[in-house]
């Protein structure tokens, strides 16, 4: 982290983030919410890590908004300032592909595998995209709203 | 004579060894497929998910009054922190008031839980390194003896030893009974004394330091990049404790130190947790001295499922559990059930660092590192 | 027909039979002693339900192991697998053949008693490796490889440490070493005696694969190591052999350093004193076992080759120098 980031406040970070292509900034206080267009997802994550000094990767998950499609949410922190950046991207109705940020944040590796496991979102550029929590031969993606809680599944050994 | 399965010694002596899921030191159900060259680990494939119960889907089917008891089953060793994250998220969205007394009680229980959890960590870690039939078992039994005292306190308060159901949206469900405070003070005084014994036994013990110093070092950059938290982050030199940096539930009313060690190895994490023990005791004493009178919940007497409705909104509430940042990202849609709940388990991110640090160490070190990372698989798999 | 009239071969046989019988009984109760001792260290009681104060526990354990099913893995190397416990047991029992329990009582009081003891006790490695190999199990194999490595490394300083009393007594015959301590027990010998005893204990713990040097079993990593595939009576034999080896080494330690059967009271109390001293050494080893965590195999080997071997060589030289210096020249 360079010296400039110690003095980086959330206000300044908000301004900087607003200048990035495809990003709409909202939220108040120490949590900056950034709505990112899905084709700028990796650049936005890279910007948050390099320019905003958000080196701490908290989590990455998805929300199934039914007809509006899936939204991927990532939360990163700048531990020095401190402030947090909540990066969100709407994939669009029916779209299940998203860029992978595993090369940017190593913690995203397992988180994206879990997203794939639970929502079926394929992360392009992920080094090893396979199911993490469920068995490899599981059919379906449980956290989708279309997957009923009592979906019958074959008994396992 | 049946065919003896041949081990391929051609070229380098590579052996694929499976550690777990049934394994005395897997800390739960964890499978590590290790590729060994002699005694050195050259490849790790961590397989998790044996304890997956899909809490996140379950939360969508349970009301806000029902789920806190279930939340404790994620990090079942530190159930109080687990429940707290969930109710805090709901309260943050709905802007629910939490009375001061309830906040102090939450702090009290969280710190007691930290002590109990660290007791279990120390005992099982030493047992992994020393053998269930050996010196490790001795330390294990001493630590469990201390943990039992804390669990007795919880039992007289809530009625359960491991999984509580103490928190509810708007406050807590139980108030401390007669004589509990005196018992609590006695218990923590005894534990403080015993901590001196443990430190005397382990700090300068050459066998112990040989096994832990320089083993499993996590660099500052790696720690943040993967998202490890808690003692792992502080053991790698980062001064980040949610109780201090993003205080919740009146933590800013209390004085306590946040231990930070620069080395990043198992010994550093051990030192961090040992100091945390004492700081928890310090906080508990302050809470007991300053516990205000008042209601224990802003929404008392919750009787029906429909009573707690959280308006539309989203929030991410994070708690400093014994293992690190336990967080609950909640999306509410105005009904009495969440629309989406993401559980950020501390152990999931902590465990994710293993493939990066296990390469190049011996098989015995795998065990020492796993113990110092202290995963609880309820949190990893949810 | 008096004792002396019997031919020596029959004498040795009877003696051997008596000692073996007594040994089996003692070994069974030594396991109980260890469990009770460990329990007290860990602020608990230990076995106390079976029989009065748990005294029938070893018998219950013996019956249990006898009744257990003998499971042999399908792909195990059968002859090797089946023979391994026996090959492991025999050397561990043979070492008792050369220990004199009282002046004149013992199976065979060899001229080279100490040498025989050390040589035979090393043969158990063969049984150990057979068990590891025959199980056709990666854990067992890994453990057997570590065991061979470790035992060979620690046998050298072990031999050096036992050579100190040999040099002080001037003989390899165990009864003579015991007799030479009639004035002063070798452990009380200034500096050299104490250091030699400490080295003896350390290397004995390592050569017997006890914590903190029990990397070969390391339950939390290798899940019982070389004996992971054994069940029932074969497992009992392996356990018996291990305890026999520990007890045999304790007897050796008591003889070499603690004066064997020397003690107040009539001469027939000698073997009792000897047993008590051996149990003391055994409890010392057990105390170490239940107090420390284990260290890694590379650290164990480093301690052996870089620390114990040079140190024990120096000790031997110092002993030789002391003897020369103290012997009045004719």
3D architecture notes:
- The complex is a heterotrimer of chains A (157), B (382) and C (330).
- With 157 residues, chain A is an alpha/beta fold.
- Chain A has 3 helices and 7 strands.
- In chain A, a hairpin with a 4-residue loop joins strand 1 and strand 2.
- Chain B is an alpha+beta fold and 382 residues long.
- In chain B, the strands form 3 sheets. A 3-stranded antiparallel beta sheet of chain B has the order 1-2-3, with no helix packed on it.
- In chain B, strand 7 and strand 8 form a beta hairpin.
- In chain B, helix 4 runs antiparallel to helix 5, helix 4 runs antiparallel to helix 11 and helix 4 runs antiparallel to helix 14.
- Chain B is globular and about 65 Å long.
- Chain C is mainly α.
- Helix content of chain C is 66%, strand content 0%.
- Chain C has 12 helices and no strands.
- Chain C starts with 7 loop residues before the first helix and ends with a helix.
- The mean pLDDT of chain C is 84.
- Chains in contact: A-B, B-C.
- Chains B and C meet through helix 4, helix 5, helix 7 and helix 14 of B and helix 6, helix 9 and helix 12 of C.
Question: What is the secondary structure topology, with strand pairs?
Answer:
The complex is a heterotrimer of chains A (157), B (382) and C (330).
Chain A: H1 10-18, E1 23-26, E2 31-36, H2 41-50, E3 56-64, E4 70-78, E5 83-90, E6 97-99, H3 108-119, E7 122-124
Parallel strand pairs in A: 2-5, 6-7
Antiparallel strand pairs in A: 1-2, 3-4, 4-5
Chain B: E1 14-19, E2 31-37, E3 40-47, H1 55-61, H2 67-71, H3 79-94, H4 100-130, H5 135-158, E4 167-168, E5 171-172, H6 180-202, H7 206-212, H8 220-226, H9 231-235, H10 242-245, H11 266-290, E6 313-321, E7 324-332, E8 338-344, H12 346-352, H13 354-357, H14 363-373, H15 377-381
Antiparallel strand pairs in B: 1-2, 2-3, 4-5, 6-7, 7-8
Helix pairs in contact in B: 3-4, 4-5, 4-11, 4-14, 5-6, 6-11, 11-14
Chain C: H1 8-41, H2 57-67, H3 78-94, H4 113-122, H5 124-134, H6 138-169, H7 174-179, H8 192-207, H9 219-222, H10 232-257, H11 270-289, H12 297-326
Helix pairs in contact in C: 1-2, 1-10, 1-11, 2-10, 3-5, 3-10, 5-6, 6-8, 6-12, 8-10, 8-12, 10-11
């Amino acid at each position: 982290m360079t010296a400039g980031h110690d003095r980086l406040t959330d206000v300044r970070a908000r301004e900087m983030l607003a200048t990035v292509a495809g990003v709409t900034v909202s939220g108040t206080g120490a949590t900056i919410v950034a709505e990112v267009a899905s084709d700028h997802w990796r650049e936005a994550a890279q910007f948050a890590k390099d320019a905003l000094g958000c080196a701490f990767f908290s989590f990455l998950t998805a929300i199934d908004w039914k007809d509006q499609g899936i939204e991927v949410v990532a939360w990163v922190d700048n531990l020095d300032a401190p402030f947090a950046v909540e990066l969100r991207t709407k994939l669009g109705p029916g779209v299940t592909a998203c860029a992978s940020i595993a090369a940017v944040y190593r913690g995203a590796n397992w988180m994206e595998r879990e997203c794939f496991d639970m929502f079926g979102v394929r992360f392009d550029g992920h080094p090893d995209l396979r199911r993490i929590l469920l068995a490899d031969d599981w059919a379906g993606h449980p956290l989708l709203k279309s997957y009923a809680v009592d979906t019958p599944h074959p008994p396992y050994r | 004579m049946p065919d003896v399965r041949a081990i391929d010694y051609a070229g380098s002596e590579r052996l694929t060894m499976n550690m777990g899921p049934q394994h005395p030191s897997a800390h739960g159900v964890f499978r590590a497929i290790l590729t060994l060259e002699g005694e050195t680990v050259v490849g790790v494939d961590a397989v998790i998910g044996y304890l997956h119960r899909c809490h996140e889907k379950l939360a969508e089917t349970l009301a806000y009054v029902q789920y806190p008891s279930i939340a404790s089953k994620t990090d079942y060793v530190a159930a109080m922190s687990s429940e707290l994250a969930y109710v805090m998220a709901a309260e943050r969205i709905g802007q629910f008031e939490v009375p001061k007394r309830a906040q102090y009680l939450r702090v009290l229980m969280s710190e007691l839980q930290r002590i109990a959890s660290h007791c279990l960590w120390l005992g099982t870690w030493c047992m992994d390194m020393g053998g269930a039939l050996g010196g490790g078992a001795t330390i294990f039994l001493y630590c469990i003896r201390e943990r039992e005292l804390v669990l007795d306190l919880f039992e007289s308060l809530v009625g359960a030893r491991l999984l509580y159901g103490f928190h509810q949206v708007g406050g807590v469900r139980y108030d401390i009974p007669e004589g509990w405070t005196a018992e609590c003070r006695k218990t923590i005084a005894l534990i403080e004394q015993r901590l001196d014994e443990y430190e005397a036994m382990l700090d300068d013990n050459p066998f112990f330091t040989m096994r832990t110093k320089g083993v499993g070092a996590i660099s500052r950059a790696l720690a943040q990049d993967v998202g490890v938290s808690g003692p792992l982050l502080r053991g790698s030199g980062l001064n980040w404790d949610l109780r201090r940096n993003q205080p919740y539930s009146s933590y800013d009313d209390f004085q306590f130190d946040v231990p930070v060690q620069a080395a990043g190895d198992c010994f550093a994490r051990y030192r961090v947790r040992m100091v945390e023990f004492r700081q928890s005791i310090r906080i508990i004493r302050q809470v007991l001295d300053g516990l205000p009178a008042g209601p224990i919940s802003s929404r008392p007497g919750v009787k029906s499922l429909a009573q707690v409705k959280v308006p539309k909104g989203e929030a991410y509430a994070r708690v400093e559990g014994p293992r690190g940042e336990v967080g609950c990202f909640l999306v509410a849609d105005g009904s009495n059930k969440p629309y989406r709940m993401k559980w950020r388990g501390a152990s999931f991110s902590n465990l994710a660092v293993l493939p990066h640090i296990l390469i190049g160490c011996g098989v015995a070190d795998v065990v020492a590192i796993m113990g110092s990372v202290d995963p609880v698989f309820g949190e990893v798999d949810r | 027909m008096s004792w002396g009239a019997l031919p020596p071969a029959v004498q040795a046989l009877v003696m051997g039979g008596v000692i073996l019988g007594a040994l089996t009984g003692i070994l069974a109760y030594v396991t109980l002693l260890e469990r009770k001792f460990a329990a007290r260290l860990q602020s608990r009681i230990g076995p106390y339900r079976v029989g009065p104060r748990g005294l029938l526990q070893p018998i219950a354990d013996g019956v249990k192991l006898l009744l257990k099913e003998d499971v042999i893995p399908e792909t195990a190397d059968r002859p090797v697998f089946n023979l391994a416990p026996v090959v492991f047991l025999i050397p561990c029992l043979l070492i008792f053949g050369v220990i004199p329990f009282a002046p004149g009582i013992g199976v065979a009081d060899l001229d080279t008693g100490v040498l025989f003891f050390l040589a035979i006790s090393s043969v158990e490695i063969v049984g150990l490796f057979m068990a590891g190999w025959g199980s056709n199990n990666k854990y067992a194999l890994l453990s057997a490889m570590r065991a061979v490595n470790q035992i060979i490394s620690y046998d050298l300083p072990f031999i050096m440490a036992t050579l100190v009393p040999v040099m002080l007594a001037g003989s390899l015959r165990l009864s003579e070493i015991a007799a030479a301590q009639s004035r002063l027990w070798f452990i009380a010998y200034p500096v050299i005696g104490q250091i030699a005893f400490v080295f003896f204990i350390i290397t004995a713990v390592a050569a017997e694969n006890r914590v903190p040097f029990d990397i070969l079993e390391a339950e939390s990593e290798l899940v019982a190591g070389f004996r992971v595939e054994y069940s029932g009576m074969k497992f009992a034999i392996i356990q018996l052999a291990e305890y026999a080896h520990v007890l045999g080494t304790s007897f050796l330690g008591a003889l070499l350093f603690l004066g064997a059967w020397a003690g107040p009271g009539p001469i027939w109390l000698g073997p009792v004193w000897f047993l008590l001293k051996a149990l003391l050494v055994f409890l010392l080893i057990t105390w170490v076992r239940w107090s420390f965590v284990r260290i890694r195999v590379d650290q164990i080997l480093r301690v052996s080759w870089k620390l114990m071997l040079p140190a024990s060589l120096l000790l031997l030289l110092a002993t030789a120098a002391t003897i020369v210096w103290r012997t009045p020249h004719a």
